[in-house]
Design brief:
CATH superfamily of the largest domain: Elongation factor Ts, dimerisation domain
Order of helices and strands: HHHEEHHHEEHE
CATH architecture of the largest domain: 2-Layer Sandwich
Number of domains: 2
Low-confidence stretches: none
Shape: elongated
CATH topology of the largest domain: Tetrahydropterin Synthase, Chain A
Oligomer: single chain
Number of helices: 7
Number of strands: 5
Distance between the termini: 61 Å
Length: about 170
């Protein structure tokens, strides 16, 4: 089956996956764009699982101050190499995470970091489980997993802090 270049380009723009990955997914899906997207999503999850045990000691600290200066965020996002830490995809992820923290005020990174006495819903209190502010159909963890699939390295949010005047 011959896959048109325009279909590969469209899938690549939609998912951020590599050209050959898009072509293979379209071949496996017999040209169906939705099936190909699902195939790439599953492969991205599999890649993230494989890379989860790899150490992530490089990365960046992203700072965000909300207009008006009343809310500020610092978030440390780690990856495996300084090369990936300098990529636009990684920097964009770190910035989006800082925006997420400023907007949604999570109390912990994941449910393991929450105290049992808090009684808060992990979906709202844990950063990784929150609906992503730019696409509520996905969680923050989904966005991180997608970025792992794009850059090919393990990525971890190590820690964050949110400051707000008057609280």
């Amino acid at each position: 089956m011959q896959i048109p270049t325009s279909a590969i380009k469209e899938l690549r723009e939609k998912t951020g996956a590599g050209v050959m990955d898009c072509k293979k997914a379209l071949l496996d899906a017999e040209g169906n764009m939705e099936k190909a997207t699902e195939i790439l999503h599953k492969r991205g999850l599999a890649m993230a699982i494989k890379k989860a045990d790899r150490t992530a000691n490089e990365g960046i600290v992203e700072a965000y101050v909300h207009p008006g200066g009343r809310i500020g965020v610092l978030v440390e996002v780690n990856c495996e190499t300084d090369f990936v830490a300098r990529t636009q995809e990684f920097k964009e992820l770190a910035h989006n995470l800082a925006l997420q923290i400023a907007a949604m005020s999570p109390q912990a990174l994941s449910s393991e970091d929450m105290s049992e006495q808090s009684g808060e819903d992990p979906e709202t209190a844990c950063l990784l489980f929150q609906p992503f502010i730019k696409d509520p159909n996905k969680t923050v963890q989904d966005i991180i997993t997608e970025t792992i699939a794009k850059v090919g390295e393990n990525i971890r949010v190590r820690r964050f802090i949110r400051f707000e005047l008057g609280c």
